[in-house]
Sequence to fold (755 residues):
Amino acid sequence: MIFVEILSRHRDVAARFRFADQDVYIGRGYDNDVIVDDPYVGARHVRLFRDDAGRLVVEDMGSANGMFLDRDKSRHRRIIVDGERPIRIGHTHLRIRETSHGVGPERVARSGVRIAPIALAAALCLVIIGIEIVTRWSGETGEPRVSNYLTPLLWLAVIVPAWVAVWALLSRTFSGSAHVQRNLLIALAGILGFALYSELAQFSGFALNWAFVANYHYVALWIILAIVCFLHLREVSRSRLVLKGAVVLILFAFIVTVQTLQQFEAFYNSGRETVSRRLLPPALRLVPVRDEHAFFAEIEGLKAKLDRDRLHARTDEAAP
Amino acid sequence: MVAAAIGGVAWAASTEPLVSALPGPSAAEGIYAAAPPRLLQIRTLVSGAGRQSAIGSGFLVSADGLAITNYHVVSQVALDPTTYQLEYIAADGSRGEVKLLAIDLPNDLAVVRLDKRNAPFFAFDESAMARGLSKGERLYSMGNPLDLGFTITEGTYNGLVERSYNERIHFTGALNGGMSGGPAVTAGDRVVGVNVAKRSGGELVSFLVPARFAAALLQRVRDQELVPAQDFRAEIGGQLAAWQSGLYKSFIDQGFRSIAFGPYRAPESKAPWFNCWAQTNASAMPKPRASVNSTSCRSDTGLFVASDLNTGVIQLSHAHVRTVDLNQFQFAAFLTGQSQTRLFGGGPFRKWYTPQRCHEDFVVAGSAQDHPPLRVVWCAQAYREFAGLYDVALTAVTEDHGSEALVSRLSLQAVGYDDAIALGKRFLDAVQSTP
Fold:
C-alpha cells in the first residue's frame, strides 16, 4: 500500500489517498490519480512508481514549475521518497508513505491539569505584586491610599490576560496550539524583569552613584520587551528563529534610537534633564564619600562643557 | 483703607495754614508750566512697521539735545538695533529721531541724543545730591503714563530703599507704566531722581534712581565725547559682568553667620540686602508625616537686562526635615521631593541660556566630626550672550541620619564660575552637624 498525503501550509494532512502498489499520476488534470487544485501545478505534474531496486521514486513529467524537496531551492527531476521530507510541486506539499512507515510511541494522556506551570505562574504573580506593593509603600509619604496598591493588581488582572490572549491566538493560528501557559509565563517573567530592573536602577543610581542607569532606564526596558516578544514569537512557531530574532532586534533598535533622539532633542529644547534621581536611606550608600577637593575638581571640569555648549549655541544662532 | 488715608493727608496738607509754607497745589502747576518743551515721551518703534512696541518717558538735560531716560525704556534698541528704532514726542508736540549714546545697566539709565538745539532743559539739584533730602520732602514726578498724555504727580521722598543692594530712592507717589525715565524734581524744579519702578502689589510704593548716577553718566558722555553706537550688546555684557563681580565680591566679603536647624548648623548671609522668610508645614492638613521647617533668603539685587531677562538674584535656603511617622525609605522618598535641584533662570531658556549641566556625588567637606556626609548636586547653565556668566544651583542633603536631614540650597544668578566655586565651597563647609 502507498499513501499520498496533501499537506496544509502548517503541514497538517489535508487529504489522504490510498493506492495499491502501482504507478500513481499526480497533477491538475482529471485524468490523474491524485487531482491537485493548484494553478501552479501542471496538468500531469509527477509520476510515482517503484524502481527496480524496490524504492519509491517521484519523477517530474516535464512540468514548467518543477519539483522540489520541502523548502529547498534546487529543482529535482527525480526524488527517492523517504516518507519524512515533503515534496513540493507548485504551492502544494505532498508526503508519500508506505504501510511499513514507522510511527512514534503513543503519547500518554495526563489525567487532570499539570500543576507545576500554574504554581510557577502564581508564584511569579505573587512576587510581582509583592515588589510593586513594597515599592509603593516605601514611596508613600502622604495619606495611604488603597487604590494606589490595587493598580498593580488591575494590571495583572486585565492587561496581562489581554496580552497573553493575543499571543495565544497567534500561536493557535500559526502552530495549531495556543500554549497559554507558556505565553503566560513569558509575560509574567517579562514583568518581573521590568520590576527588578527598576528597583536595581534606583538602588544603583543612589548607592553606587551611577547616573547612567536612570538616564538609560528606557533602553533596559525596551530590551526586556524585545526578549519577551522574541520568546512569544518562538512559541508561535519554532521555525525561522534567526529571521524573527533579527526582525525583533531591528524593530527595537529603531525604537530605542528614536527615543534617544527624542530625549536628546527635548534636552536641548527645555535645557533640563527629564530624569530625577531618588534618594534612599543613607545606610544603603555603597560608594565612599568624596572629599570636597575631588568634588570641586569635577565641578571645574563642568565649566569646559558649559563653554562648549555656549560656543555651539552661538554658532547655531549665526548659521541661519 | 490705605488709599483713603493717603487722600486724607493730601487734603489736610492743602488746607492747613501751617503747612502752606510748603508748596501747595500751585507748586505743581508752576513746575509743570515750564516742563513741556523739556519733557519727552520716548517711543521704541518696530523699524518695519513704524509703530511703537514700547513707550517710556525722558527729559532733556542739555541745550544741545542730550536727554536722560531709563535703560529699560531703550533696551530693545540697545539689544537689537536692526529691528527697533527710537523716536521722541515732546510735551509741546514736536517729535523726531533719538540716538542711543550710553547706558548704565545697573542703575537702569541711558543717555540719548535728540535733534533739538537751544531747547530748555532740566538741571540736577547738586546740593540735594550732596546733602541728601529729608524724609517727607515733597517731590514732583513727571512723565506720560500709559500713553494717556503728560502728567505731573505729587509724592514724598522717603529715603533710600532699605535692604536693597542697588541704591534706589523710595518715592511715595503714583508711578505708572510709561512714566519710566521721567524726572522727579523738588519744589525748586531741580531733578533729584529718575522714575524707574513701582512695587506691584504695593500702593504708591515707587522707586527713583538717584540723580547723581544720571549726572555721572552724562558726565561720561561729555568726557568721552561718545557718539551713537551701533551695538550695545558687548557693553551690556561688560557692565553686567563687572557689576555682578562686585556684587559677589561684596557677598563673599560680608560673610556668613551660622544658624541652628535642629542638630545642624547652616550659613546665612550677613549682607543687609537679603530678605528672609520662614516657613513650616506644622499646620498643614492632612497632618504631615514629616515636619519641614525652612527659611529662605532672597537678595534684592535683581537687574533688568532685557524685557525677558531679569537676573542677578542670590537665594539661600535651608529646610530641616524630620520624620513624624515615615520609615527610612518613605522619609528618603519625602526628601527626594524636598531636594530637587531647580535652576531659576531669569528668562526664557532657549533665548538666553545653554542647557543645564549637573554633577552629583556624596561629599564630605572638612573634618568628619562636625561635617556630615552630604549628597550634593551642582547644576549650572551658561549665558549664551554674556561670556563668563553662569547661573548655578547647589543643593546639599545631609546623609548622616535616616530619619532627619537638612536640605540646603544656594542659587546664584549671573555669577562668574570661580566665584560660584568659591561660594559653593564656603557654603558646603558651613553645613555642619553639632555633636
Summary: Residues 1-24 of chain B have pLDDT under 50 and may be disordered.
